[in-house]
Amino acid sequence: MRKICIIYTGGTIGMTRTEKGYAPKKGYLGERLETIEDLKDERVPKWDMVEMSPLLDSSNMTVHEWNKIAEEIDKRYNDYDGFVVLHGTDTMAYTASALSFMLENLAKPVVLTGSQIPLCEIRSDARDNLISSMLIAADGRVKEVCLYFGGKLMRGNRTTKYSADGFSAFKSPSYPYLADSGIELKYSEALLRDSDKGEFSIRRLSPVPIGVIKVFPGIQFELFESIMTEKLRGIVIETFGAGNIPGSADSLLPIIKKAFSHGTVITVCSQCPQGTVSLGVYETSSALKDAGAINGYDLTTEAAVAKLYYLFSCGYDSTKIKEMMETDLRGEMSC
Ligand code: ASP
């Protein structure tokens, strides 16, 4: 009999009604799950549940909570065939990306899921998201951090939250789905990642000061100069298209050059959900390349942020970090 561990971090899936709106409540989800007859079906793996404390709306997640989730998995790694992490949808793509880097040499499924409507409501999407994720975690074919939602299994570090209220809340714009759920759950086995060889361990993250800037028409880059101090270790610039910034970038380049001289790691991602950054194709992106910015290829902003936290927490110097930012580590980028 396969055995999985469910880690409940908070989020809509286990929330209950309060006077101020939905909120997570200690002990509530565990009690609720005990009443679901389907979870006692012999086709469902044996499961235990761990509830994190405090339970959070995922908007409140920080590096500290990512470390706690990784520690819970680490403590139980040898006791279970797989793990399901129940999480709020708002920052699930960030947590999935972070865990994909933090769980080193992972060789078991870690499936993040949640729901748009709480389990306690009649039209909830929680039941399928939970039961399918449990089956995926027990199956063991996937040996990576992934996210199951709305009938699709996705590589965690390729996901982004796409809909604030639809049941298909997540997309994986630059990497195909790992499995599709219809009458059967159909895996695309050729797309699954092989586990890295080596002993499983976790890398705790530090709250490294990093930032994100989204470029827009008319952006006054000089307003951002004050945040580009020596304290800022990494920044993700969300540019237009394939890595382009406004032509009036005269004001951006000196700032980028200054940041570069401080050793700040500048990563260029695209505002387009699909496609890849290719610095130097247009005049408007060559300048970024010349100033020492990193080509983020098809990294999502969520994965770029998580990867910066991870690489700085590994203690590498900025030259090594720049090199690794352009290297695929966990299937997060195609380069
Ligand atoms: N605000 C909630 C959260 O992210 C939304 C959700 O769970 O869907 O925790």
Short descriptors:
single chain, alpha/beta, Rossmann fold, four-stranded parallel beta sheet, 8 helices, 18 strands, 23% strand
The number of strands is 18
- Which cofactor or ligand species appear? aspartic acid
H/E topology pattern: EEEHEHEHEEHEEEEEEEEEHEHEHH
| CATH topology descriptor of the largest domain | Rossmann fold
Mean of pLDDT: 94
C-alpha Rg (nearest Å): 21 Å
* Name given to the CATH homologous superfamily of the largest domain: L-asparaginase, N-terminal domain
Largest sheet: 8 strands, mixed
* Poorly predicted sequence stretches spanning 5 or more consecutive residues: none
Overall geometry: elongated
Structure report:
By secondary structure, this protein is an alpha/beta fold. It has two domains: 3-202, Rossmann fold; 210-325, Rossmann fold. 26% of the residues lie in helices and 23% in strands. The protein has eight helices and 18 strands. It has helices at 28-34, 63-76, 92-102, 126-139, 252-262, 283-290, 301-313, 318-325, and strands at residues 3-10, 15-18, 21-24, 46-56, 82-86, 103-104, 110-113, 145-149, 152-155, 160-161, 170-171, 179-181, 185-187, 201-202, 210-214, 234-239, 265-270, 294-295. The strands form five sheets. An eight-stranded mixed beta sheet has the order 4-1-5-7-8-9-12-13, with helices on both faces. A four-stranded parallel beta sheet has the order 15-16-17-18, with helices on both faces. Helix 3 runs parallel beside helix 7. The longest helix has 14 residues, at 63-76. It is elongated. The model has no long low-confidence stretch (mean pLDDT 94). It binds aspartic acid.
